[in-house]
Amino acid sequence: MTARIKWKKVGLIFEPAGKAPWLHTHAWVPTPEYLGEGYIRIYFAGRNRENLSQIGAFTIHVDRPFEILDLTAQPLVSLGALGTFDDAALLPSCIVQVGDRKLLYYVAWMQGRRVPFHASLGLAISEDGGASFSKHSAAPVLDRNAVDPIFIASADIHREGDLWRCWYTSNTAWRQTPSGPLPRYHIRYAESRNGIDWERSGHVAIDFGSDAEYAISRPWVRRRREGYCMWYAYRGPAYRIGYAESADGIDWTRMDDRAGIDISADGFDSEMIEYAAVIDTPNGPVMFYNGNEFGYDGVAMAVAE
To answer: For residue 76, which of 95, 60, 61 has the smallest C-alpha distance?
Structure first.
């Protein structure tokens, strides 16, 4: 399963550019859902003028990616009440279809004092095909514990029969630097029988490649006939898109040279490229991703050559 995919960049397909009060800048962590017949809904986080992020979505057709067919007028999932786990930012992580319900797992932030933020994983559920979402709980479904004592961030969750599988970001430490505290997180693996209660052993799926790396996040897993493949973001000086493969989804081999995509010579993704998500369409695999400043300019698309 090691055939290299070369990605051809299509460009920015969605730019926030003050389209709504809740969407002043950024459209980060694009999370696509294939709707059928070439239509794709892309969930994303937009920032308001207070720099607080909430979740919205837009729809495109794979043949006409620059034509935005709809954009949510208001956030689909909004900030929680002051002091709750999601009162500062919500970022989409993955969508799981269970019968007629859509389960949207999202990263939630609280702002901190000694450290900039605390993150955990929340859940919102739609009973009406994604038109609206209600939060499962006022508390996270995946938060710090004895195995992951600092914070939990982006996750990709798959349901395989009665087994729910989760690849998630876990912070291993905050380190003091001249510019302030800096987290160091990688990707771990967990399992569940209901998608709510998770068994965690601390098993590391994607580990740091060197001492210079300090952030590995946004796992995006796809199951293939021969096993599993994963795209993720990894960061030393700046974010890049990485790639790994696994026979069982538990033990992984990093193959970052096979990611097939990198920064451009100039433009919106000339400094960093991250948060890749890949789905299959009638036109072949399609990737959505962000560029400089964590998606300040919007959502970009690439197609497999």
So the answer is: 95
Q: Which of 117, 114, 58, 116 is nearest to 86 (CA)?
A: 117
Instruction: State in Å, rounded, how far the first CA of the chain is from the last one.
Output: 17
Q: Taking the CB of residue 122, how many other CB atoms lie within 10 A of it?
A: 26
Q: What is the pTM of this model?
A: 0.97
Residue 70: exposed, middle, or buried by beta-carbon count in 10 A (0-12, 13-18, 19+)? Answer: exposed
User: In this structure, are residues 93 and 31 in contact, taking their beta carbons and an 8 Å threshold?
Assistant: yes
- What's the CA gap between 179 and 163, in Å, rounded? 43
pLDDT digits (tens, 9 = 90+) for 236-289: 999 999 999 999 999 999 999 999 999 999 999 999 999 999 999 999 999 999
Provide the residue type at 129 as one letter: G
Give CA–CA dist 143/302, Å, rounded.
33
